[in-house]
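Protein: NAD(P)-binding protein
Species: Parathielavia appendiculata
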Amino acid sequence: MLDYLSLTDKPITSGVIVLVLSLVAYLVRLNELLSGTPDEVKKLSPTRWTKALLVETYRRLEAHPITTRSYAALIPKKLERRYIVTGGSGLVGGYIVLQLLERGQPPDSIRIVDFRPPNRADMLDGAAARVDFVAADISSADATHRAFAKPWPPSVARRPLTVFHTAAVIVPSDRSRLASGFCDAVNVRGTQNVVDAAQRAGADVLVSTTSGSISIRPVELWVPPWRMRRGQLPRRCWQVLDEKDFFEPLRGHDEFYANYPASKAAAERIVCAANSEDLRTGSIRPANGVYGNPTDNTLGGALAKAVLPTWTSHVVQSFVHGINVAIAHLNLEAILASPESAVSLQAGRPFVITDPNPPISYRDLYFLVQTLAVTPFRIFALQPVVVMLLSYPIEWYSLALARFPCLRKVLPELAGEVKHLKPGIFSICAHLVASNDVASRPVSDGGLGYTGVLTTLEGMTMEVLEWNRDHKDVVGARKSYTNSVSLADDIAKAAAVAEFGR
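Structure follows.
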């Protein structure tokens, strides 16, 4: 009997070994594919930044920094209007406020409506510090209406009103409808509240900030073995960010990589559908990702760490500086200021905006920080397949807490950056190339006449310059900044306390 059992165990053991080895071989090959850069993308981004280039650019910009004064001639001319900027304390909204002031708008003609007051260093003194601020949660219709209805100083009260709607929450990787409530409340319902409040306040121009991530389709993470043998990369591992999807029916929720782009797509449709002769509307889609201040996620997130775990060094993407995004908003406003523009080619539609240069790789970004920052920095290379395998149990754990709230009594919620490590993050970390083609056309051809103020090399070098100034007297520590993702976490916590008392 024992001899029989030992004989029958051998095929089972051999089968298990073959299965395990096959799985390991599959994962190793999958890791190679996830670590690859398609030839088409390499052609679009053929050169890497060198130390000599970085040092020369740093020295040039240190001697002649790019400021609102230095590019004032590129800002669309002053209009005799008043302005509400939702999210005006943030990255894009803040640059819109600074550019409005630079072109001569008086501070009392501008109002920031945001969850928190400005804390950017470039908005804490001078004319920016005299801009009116109203704290409001745009997910509340009443709070939004009160912020818009606040009386204006008599000197500007009769001017026509432009609304720049830049407020949003960024939750980068949640993709289940179970976790979509927060994005929907702020990004979708909040946008409807802003449109309604703008109409009640008599605004005749509304330009919103949406996101280039709207056009991203979910990346295929599990490549079938028969395609893997032919060396085929995961489907949609590289994508072009453009506006074509806007002219098609709105995709279903599962066709977006996460709740955030799904909510921004819905919000964009709300804004553009509101276009009329009385309220001319349009949207700006910044490419992934937006940078331009140490508070940003893209470059500021790397600067904030001495050691950065990453699997994205090979990834090529288009980036866009907040200055360029703000200029595009003002370009669109200049067109929509005319009542006849409601039927123009620019009204009621989005425009993708990126820096005026080819895409770069994250390796370039990391090398820039390592070369120019006064604070120490190095990357800790991770294998993509390992990160991907970890992302699933993190997502399952988060969804279990969402599906069964009673579990929160015994299980802690995930905190910090690990809570965002879910499968959806791989789609936003794909090779993403943005196209300025439409926005760069002349106004007569339906474009914005957009050119961009600064390149990615200049913009990122300027941000490191600002970082270095902030840290020249700081020994052994880094200053703390609140970026858009951590701000979204703070808002979510505040909402949870208000709703559940926890």
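Remarks: Residues 39-496 form a domain with the Rossmann fold fold (CATH 3.40.50.720).
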